[in-house]
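Pinned message: reference record for Prenyltransferase alpha-alpha toroid domain-containing protein
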Amino acid sequence: MGSKLYEIGRFVNADLLIRYIEERRHEDGGYCFVSVLDDTNVNDTYYAVKIYDLLGMEVPEKEKTIKFLEKAIQPQTAVVAIAMAMEGLAILGAKDIAMEHLNIVFTKYNPLEGRFAVGLGGSEEFGTATPLEATYWVVKAFKAIGYDFSPDEKEAIRTFVMKFRNGNGYGVKGPTTTMTYQALYTLHALGYRPPKSPHFKNCELCGEWGGFTEVPYSLPPYLEPTFYASRGLELQGEAPTCPSRHIWFIRQLQNSNGGFRRSLELGISNFQNTYRALAVLDFMKRFI
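Predicted structure (tokens):
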């Protein structure tokens, strides 16, 4: 058992977790979180790669997964999925393959032409991707593969992101945890240094709950804002107020199949939730 997996195993059932991922790998190198379906997809495959990487483990038969992700980068593929595939390739040591497909990204995402994702398609969070979400994923992918935007491109992206500035965070009708983190990450990745936002701290729940919320002073906590708030605190060099309570919250989310759901209520496991739960644990355990 790897050292990181051993550390995570102090808090959750690591054996079940690994079995959950491995049983959902298919012959084409892709993954599907519903084990009985042979419907492999970029989202599940990306998060499987991220889970193995977080745990410091090798992806089984990674050459198959590299081919799967490269094949997914097509003109008809949504830009968020393309960005996931490119970042996944970078993690697997195939940055050169990802770089070969930059032209496809620029047909959908070209900040100098004011195109912040044409034909947005599917989203991680909201059903249909927002241009800010697409920007976050493209910037994250380009950073992973080592592509540097030009100064003019960076300034165009910065100007676009700042349109979402809302009070002490970022959002459309009001600041949200997800959009605040996506905006701040994008600005930092481009070399800008925006002021720290108190939004993440305002969404922290201690006491009987644990976890974080999407907007301040609300209930209940969910895994998505807990993940993004943890990332936001880390980005700003801040510590959580009650890390042990957040670890308790995450531990409650592991299902009997080894994967994780998004809330304290009943829910199904998926790879996205499982990666996010592990990432939160990995961050919170530094403070206990």
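Pinned by admin. Summary line: Residues 3-287 form a domain with the Glycosyltransferase fold (CATH 1.50.10.20).
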